[in-house]
Structure formats: structure tokens, C-alpha cells
Design a protein that fits this description.
353 residues; alpha+beta; Elongation Factor Tu (Ef-tu), domain 3; OB fold (Dihydrolipoamide Acetyltransferase, E2P); 3 domains; four-stranded antiparallel β-sheet; 6 helices; 24% strand; coiled coil; signal; plasmid; YbhG-like alpha-helical hairpin domain-containing protein
């Protein structure tokens, strides 16, 4: 019994070794998807620099939000709409801001009226009345002065008593005081306010106008406007949602898709072979082998961490890349955000050894 058991164990061991050997020799299935660029990057052919890229608008995709927190009241556009620079896209609830602007405008109008009152002086009616009063007082004074002079002569001729003379002189003094008071009143009406009062009113008017500007700016911040002419790519926010600066989220994305670029990530080993003006083309898995031609339009001047992944398990993820902007001649069916494989003709620049 024991020899049979030993023989059976030996047979099973040999079979296990055979299976494991066959398994080790069989290739592992490719568990992760691989783009055509991922396969080509392994070869790094002499004439071409191959990189992963993503399609974007000429202006990049601008993700927009409000300048202040609030509740979204209205969204004026939909995805795909053409917009002009400065066009309203969305608005927050702004009832309080409107009321504050109206209050500031009312205060500014009151300050302006006060300033004009001080600079213009009294009304013409007031000036006319004061002038007439001054003239009447002068005429009365002249009459009492002439009467006092006449009685002075009569007293010297012993024609009247001293009491009559003194009474006439007192009447003349009273009339002179009334004339002086009327003259001062006329001057006061003509130049009613001091320079300090006028200057103060001017400063108050300037402050009121500034308050109007602040209130108007606060109201304008409640509205989101397009920073460039282009197309609405996506509407993220809806009426009734809260937008907060403390946890900002996009409201609307816009971009100029009249022309498209491809932002390619060139491996740091190949950056010495990239030049502005080099011929390039891109491919997308969605369109098979169809090529979309273009040229290198701009090369970013600093390296950045790699963001796009090819799906190749052996791909290094800790490399730095150089972003290269490829201007497409005719984007055709390509859309913003599509992943593509970029091929740059660097045959004129030999690879580094």
C-alpha cells in the first residue's frame, strides 16, 4: 500500500511541474488597454517622436465661476451656444445688490443737490428781496438824516427845543442801524455759505459717487460673462444651486473651437528633438488610421509631471514631460477633450545617444 501511495505522489508532482512550466512559458494576457501610441513609444523610431495628447480649443477650455458666493438664479446659455466676449452667461440672485445700488444712487443725488445749493448760493427771489430791503432801509435813513440836519439848524436858531432835536437824532440813529443790518443781510444772501461748507459738500458728493461705483461693482459681480468669444462647451451649474468661493465648482466651460490644438506630452528623453514648425499628425482610436495633420506651434518652456496615461503597464509614471502644442490644419470630426496619439516628424534632429 505504501509503495503505491509514493508512486502516485511522484506522478502528481511531475504533472504539477509540467503545468507550472507551461504556465511560465505562456505570455500573460494584456490586462490593460493600450493605445497605438503606447505600442509605438516602446520602439521610439528614429524619425518620429511619439506622444500622448488631448484635443483642446485654441483658447484652452476655460472653466468659469462667479466672483462671489450666492445662489444661481438664471443660466442664459446652453451647451453648443455661440457666445461673444462680454456676453452674460449666468446670474446669481441679486435683489439685495440692486436695492443697495438704488440707495447709493439716491444718496448721491441728495449730495449733488446740496453741493449745487451751496455753490449757487441763494435763490434769485431771496437775493431780490434782500436788495429791496436794503434800498428801503437806505431811503428811510436818508429821510431821518435830512430831518435831523434840518432840526439842527432850527435849534441853532432857537426855533425848536433841545428835546425835539434829540428826538430827531435818535430817529436818525435807529434808521442808520436798520440800514446797516439790511446791508449785512444782503451780503449774507449774496455769499451765504463759507468756503469750508462748500468744500465739505464737495467731498461728501465725491464719497457718495464712490459708493455708487462700489454698489454697481457688487451688482456686476453677480453676473458671469464670457471672457472670450467662442462656444459653450459645458454647463455645470443649474438655477437654485449654491456657488461658494470656499468650495468653488465650475458653472460654465467655454472655448474657441473654431480651430483646435492638441496638447501633447513629450517624454523628457525626446525634448531635444522638438522644434517649433515641425510637421506633425495625430490619430484617434475612434477614427482608426485616419491622420489629422498639423504643425508644432508652441513648446512650453518648463517640464511638468506626466498627466496622460497610455495604458501600458510598463509605462514609467514618474517621468517629467514637455507640453507641446500642435496646431491642427483641419480638425475635422475631432472634438475637445478627445485623447489622441501625436506623431512629430523629428527626422532632421537626430536622437540623443
Amino acid at each position: 500500500m505504501q509503495p503505491r501511495f509514493i508512486a502516485l505522489a511522484a506522478i502528481m508532482g511531475v504533472a504539477s511541474v509540467f503545468v507550472l512550466s507551461r504556465s511560465a512559458q505562456a505570455p500573460l494576457p494584456d490586462l490593460m488597454p493600450r493605445t497605438s501610441a503606447a505600442a509605438t513609444m516602446e520602439e521610439r523610431t528614429k524619425g518620429w517622436v511619439v506622444a500622448s495628447g488631448i484635443v483642446e480649443p485654441v483658447t484652452k477650455e476655460l472653466v468659469l465661476g462667479f466672483e462671489t458666493s450666492g445662489v444661481i438664479d438664471t443660466v442664459f446659455v446652453a451647451e453648443g451656444d455661440k457666445v461673444e466676449k462680454g456676453q452674460p452667461l449666468a446670474r446669481l440672485r441679486n435683489g439685495m445688490e440692486k436695492a443697495q445700488l438704488e440707495e447709493a444712487q439716491a444718496n448721491a443725488q441728495a449730495a449733488r443737490m446740496e453741493f449745487e445749493k451751496l455753490t449757487n448760493g441763494s435763490r434769485p427771489e431771496e437775493k431780490g428781496e434782500a436788495l429791496a430791503q436794503e434800498r428801503r432801509a437806505f431811503k428811510v435813513y436818508e429821510q431821518y438824516r435830512d430831518e435831523a440836519t434840518r432840526r439842527q439848524r432850527l435849534w441853532q436858531q432857537d426855533a425848536i427845543s433841545r428835546e425835539d432835536l434829540e428826538r430827531a437824532q435818535r430817529d436818525m440813529d435807529v434808521a442808520r442801524q436798520e440800514y446797516v443790518a439790511a446791508t449785512q443781510q444782503l451780503k449774507l444772501v449774496e455769499d451765504m455759505y463759507r468756503r469750508e461748507d462748500v468744500a465739505k459738500a464737495g467731498y461728501q458728493l465725491a464719497a457718495a459717487d464712490s459708493a455708487v461705483g462700489v454698489a454697481r461693482a457688487a451688482l456686476e459681480r453677480m453676473e458671469l460673462r464670457a471672457p472670450v468669444s467662442g462656444t459653450v462647451l459645458r454647463v455645470h451649474g443649474e438655477p437654485g444651486e449654491v456657488f461658494s468661493l470656499f468650495a468653488p465648482s465650475p458653472v460654465i466651460s467655454v472655448g474657441d473651437i473654431s480651430a483646435l490644438n492638441v496638447r501633447a506630452e513629450v517624454d523628457e528623453r525626446d525634448i531635444g528633438r522638438i522644434r517649433v514648425g515641425q510637421v506633425a499628425f495625430v490619430r484617434a482610436d475612434a477614427y482608426g488610421s485616419e491622420k489629422f495633420n498639423g504643425k508644432v506651434g508652441r513648446v512650453v518652456l518648463s517640464l511638468t509631471p506626466k498627466r496622460l496615461r497610455t495604458g501600458n503597464p510598463s509605462e514609467p509614471v514618474d517621468r517629467s514631460v514637455l507640453e507641446v502644442l500642435i496646431a491642427l490644419d483641419a480638425p475635422g470630426p475631432l472634438v475637445s477633450g478627445l485623447r489622441v496619439d501625436a506623431f512629430i516628424d523629428a527626422s532632421a534632429v537626430p536622437p540623443a545617444k
